[in-house]
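Human: If only I could read C-alpha cells as easily as an amino acid sequence. Take your time, and here it is.
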Amino acid sequence: MNRRDWILIGAILALAAVLAAIFYIPKLFVPEDNPAVVTVTIDTELYGVYALSEDREVDIDTKYGHNHLSIRDGFAQVTEADCPDGLCMHQGRISQNGEMNVCLPHLLIVEVTSGDGNGPDK
C-alpha cells in the first residue's frame, strides 16, 4: 500500500467519524421526555398501553382469539397466538417508534409509539 492508499483510508474514516458525530452522538445526550410505549388495539379499539421500559407479559383474549405479548428488555414481541398461520409470532421484536406487529386473523395491532401518543411523525 502506498501513501495515497493510506490517505484515502484516513479520509473515509474521518468522514465516518463526522457522520457519526452528526447523527448519533447528539441522541445519546438528549433526555427522552416521552419514553416509548406499546399500544395494543383490537379491531381499531384500544386494548391497552404498556411502557416499553417495564418487563411484563400480557395475555390478549378476545372474541377473535388468543395472543400473548411479551415485553422484555425494551422490546415487545407476540410470543403465542392461536391463529391459523401464526405469522405474528414470526414478525420479530419491535422497539422503535412506528414499528408494528400485526395479527390479521385476530384484528390485533401492536405498535410502538412515543409516550405522548404520537406515531413516527411527531
